[in-house]
Design brief:
It is a single chain. The protein is an alpha+beta fold. The strands form two sheets. The chain has a four-stranded antiparallel beta sheet with strand order 4-3-1-7, with no helix packed on it. Strands 5-2-6 form a three-stranded antiparallel beta sheet, with no helix packed on it.
């Protein structure tokens, strides 16, 4: 509730002791034209005015409303009377606590959505690829749904539509190309081997990041970074040796996905446009999604033709409604988890995001094993665990390295 501040001005001096008037008396009247008393508030609200009492010297009563009062005894100058009260919100004491708590809840919710969308994407995507083994067409459908969502987002002003220059499009084109290949190779691997094995191989992304950064950016790893790569490579090798669904097509597709995804990160550092013309992550991802659709569409039609029509699916003996529904859910989750991933990246450091990505991979592997009842031998599980532990160690080493640079 807002309080009112009261201010009396000018100051009025009061006599200690009344005495009889001598020769001339002080005459005072209620003068509406003189300086007003002010009733205001500290927070800048409009002051309320009350007309003050003016004083003048005269020897007798005047018909204009003057009255005779004793002359005041001289006294020290008064500071005036001021009464001030400010409004204090009832939740003022809770603000410093509630804000971090709210931010923590929002961040936790984003991480939960990131993991949830990723789980549903992998499950529904695997079901679609098992029934419809055309990864190029499936990937094109995912880019198509993502492009529609981006256009709706810009049209409805849910996110600011960017103004793209020709230089920016040229700079983004190689990023879109490797983004297209990365997702295509991932779907190719998911169609050939189990979800858990694909994500175990994709745990080798730090290895490719270190190699490509050294080759193209001149960023050579420290001894600690190299040490963290050993359990990653060893764990993936151990898991591959005992993987029940292992085949070379699925293995090399996942490795190619690692290569292209990490190439995207290196290219974004090396070839991106000037800082003042750079785009935020969500806008950049949105543009890349649309460009990836146009890049992949000709290749999809040339290699796999038009095989997503109801007539073709019915002729192949597939449940059209079920396949379309699962494909749509997979595409929505594909776009949603990447959007949420970039939203998280805007709130946390890249190292924290990397640790969260490692945990996400563990969650996806465990849930896919349980859902698809994937057979896992003890050595296979041990290899997967060692590889994921290496990824976590790599993230911690990078965190220490980044702190050392800051200091």
């Amino acid at each position: 509730m807002q309080s009112t501040a009261i201010s009396f001005s000018p100051s009025i001096s009061l006599p200690k002791k009344p005495h009889r008037p001598s020769g001339s008396a002080s005459l005072c009247r209620f003068n509406p034209l003189s300086q007003p008393l002010r009733f205001g508030s500290l927070n800048g609200s409009t002051a309320r005015k009350i007309n003050p009492i003016s004083c003048s010297s005269s020897s007798k009563l005047n018909r204009n409303g003057w009255i005779s009062v004793p002359a005041p005894v001289p006294e020290r100058e008064s500071d005036g009377v001021e009464v001030r009260a400010t409004s204090v919100p009832e939740s003022a004491g809770e603000a410093p606590k509630s804000k971090p708590m709210t931010e923590t809840l929002v961040l936790g919710s984003l991480f939960g959505l990131w993991y949830l969308f990723n789980i549903y994407f992998n499950i529904y995507n695997k079901q679609v690829l098992k029934a419809f083994p055309y990864p190029v067409t499936v990937t094109l459908a995912q880019f198509a749904v993502g492009s529609v969502l981006v256009i709706l987002m810009w049209t409805l002003n849910l996110y600011k539509r960017p103004k793209i220059s020709g230089a920016q499009l040229v700079a983004i084109l190689p990023l879109a190309a490797v983004h297209t290949l990365g997702n295509l190779f991932t779907n190719m691997s998911l169609g050939k081997v189990s979800v858990s094995f694909t994500h175990t191989i994709k745990a080798m992304e730090p290895f490719f990041s270190v190699v490509l950064s050294a080759m193209f950016l001149g960023e050579f790893p420290t001894l600690w970074v190299l040490s963290s790569l050993l359990p990653i490579v060893g764990g993936v090798g151990l898991a591959s040796m005992t993987e029940a669904s292992f085949n070379w097509a699925g293995f090399w597709s996942a490795m190619a996905s690692n290569l292209t995804n990490q190439s995207r990160n290196v290219l974004s550092k090396k070839f991106m446009v000037r800082k003042e013309e750079s785009l935020d992550n969500i806008t950049l991802f949105s543009i890349i999604t649309i460009m990836s659709f146009f890049l992949l569409a000709p290749y999809a039609f040339f290699t796999e033709g038009v095989k997503f029509t109801p007539a073709y699916l019915e002729a192949a003996g597939l449940n059209v409604n079920q396949l379309y529904t699962r494909s749509l859910i997979a595409a929505l989750c594909f776009h949603a988890y990447q959007q949420v991933s970039y939203m998280i990246l805007q709130r946390v450091s890249p190292v924290t995001h990397s640790v969260g990505n490692c945990v996400k991979r563990v969650v996806v592997i465990v849930t896919s094993v349980l859902f698809f009842r994937t057979p896992v031998s003890p050595i296979n599980g041990l290899g997967t665990g060692i590889a994921l532990a290496g990824v976590f160690l790599y993230s911690r080493v990078k965190c220490i390295k980044s702190k050392a640079k800051t200091e």
